[in-house]
Amino acid sequence: MPPSSRSPLFALAVSAGFVLVFVFGFLAWQSPPRMPFPDGRGDLSAIDQMNTPAITDIIPLLYSSLTIAPAEPTFSYIDDANNLTRLELPKKPRYKKKLGRDVLILDLETRQLPSTEDFKRGEFHWRKLNHVSAGVFNHYTYALAHGYDYKFIRAAEFEDRHATWIKPSALANHINDYKFIVFMDADATFRFTHLPVEWMLNYWKIEPHHSITMALDPWDPSLPETNADRFNRTLTNTGFMIVQNNANTQGILKAWHECPDDVRYQGCSEWKGPRFHEQSAFGEYIRYDYEKYIKELPCAEANGYPGVTQSHCEGRFVRHYWFNKFRIKEDFADNMMNAITLPLQRIFAENTNGVIYEQNKNVIY
C-alpha cells in the first residue's frame, strides 16, 4: 500500500508512541536514585545525591521550639527520679543574646571515628555506634542546634607524652578566633541539647576575667588523696572546659603546654605519661599561678553521671562517663527523641490539620 493511502489512525498511533517513549525516557532521567536501606547492601553515598534537606538544616529546625533564650529567667527539667526541677538565673545575667559562631564546640582526637570505617563499607548502623562516635555526634548536634561553630581536630600523637596533652596547644591555636571554646572529651555529653551555652555562662556567673572554667572531680573524705593534688586539693577535670578569649588565656595555655619540659615547673615531667596526664599537671602547677583566672565548678554541675554518689557528681548540665560509657549513646538518643516527639505531640494536642476527628456516635453510618 502506498504511503499516501495509510490510515490516519496509524499515523496517530505512531505519533503517540514517540510521545510515550519521550515521556518515560524523561521521567527515568529525572527520577532520583533509589534510596538504599541501611542494612549494608546499599551505597550510602547515594543519599547525598537526593534532593532532600541537609541534616545541618534539619537539626536547628528540630530544636527551634525547644531551645530557651540565653537570659530565660528559669529552666525546668524532669530529673532521673522523674521529679520536676526548676533552676533560676542570677539577677542581671551578662549574656542576653546568642553568641552564635563566636562559640566553638571542639572535639580533639588522635584517631578517626570508629564508625567511619563502617560507613565507608556501607555498614553503618545506629546499633553499632560506640561511645566515641556517639559523644562526638552529641557535640556536633549541640553546635548545629544553637548555631555555634564546630571543629573535629585530628591531632598528631606525641612522641614523649600521653595523647591527652594535645589539649593545651589545640586550644591556644584556635581561641583567638572565638570568644569562647567549649571543649569536651568524647565520653562527655551535653545533658540538654536545647540548653544554650549562654544560659550556662549566666548560671555559673562566668565573668570576663575567667580564662578557663572546669568542674571539680569527685572527692571522698574517707580517701582524701584520691583525685587530689599534693596539697590534698581536689583536681579539676579537663574533660569539659570553657575557655574564654581574654588577655590571660594564651599565657595560661602556653604555661600548661610547656609544663612537662621542666623549665618553669620542675617536676612537671612526672605527668607526661602517668594518670591523670595534663589534668594532674594543671592541678599540681598551673592553677596555683593563675588562680584568679580559673573558675572551678561543683562536680555535681558538669561532671559525672547518674548513680555517682561522691560529691553528688551526677552531671546536672554536662555528664562525663568515666565508666558505663554505653550510656553516652542513651543520652544522645534521649535528646534526639525529645526533639522529634515534641512537635508530634503538639500536632495531637493542638489538632493541627484536623488529625483528630470526633466520633460523637458509635454507629455505622
From TrEMBL:
<keyword id="KW-0808">Transferase</keyword>
<keyword id="KW-0472">Membrane</keyword>
<protein>
    <submittedName>
        <fullName>Uncharacterized protein</fullName>
    </submittedName>
</protein>
<dbReference type="InterPro" id="IPR029044">
    <property type="entry name" value="Nucleotide-diphossugar_trans"/>
</dbReference>
<keyword id="KW-0328">Glycosyltransferase</keyword>
<dbReference type="GO" id="GO:0006487">
    <property type="term" value="P:protein N-linked glycosylation"/>
</dbReference>
<keyword id="KW-1133">Transmembrane helix</keyword>
<comment type="similarity">
    <text>Belongs to the glycosyltransferase 34 family.</text>
</comment>
<dbReference type="GO" id="GO:0016757">
    <property type="term" value="F:glycosyltransferase activity"/>
</dbReference>
<feature type="transmembrane region" description="Helical">
    <location>
        <begin position="9"/>
        <end position="29"/>
    </location>
</feature>
<dbReference type="GO" id="GO:0000139">
    <property type="term" value="C:Golgi membrane"/>
</dbReference>
<dbReference type="InterPro" id="IPR008630">
    <property type="entry name" value="Glyco_trans_34"/>
</dbReference>
<keyword id="KW-0812">Transmembrane</keyword>
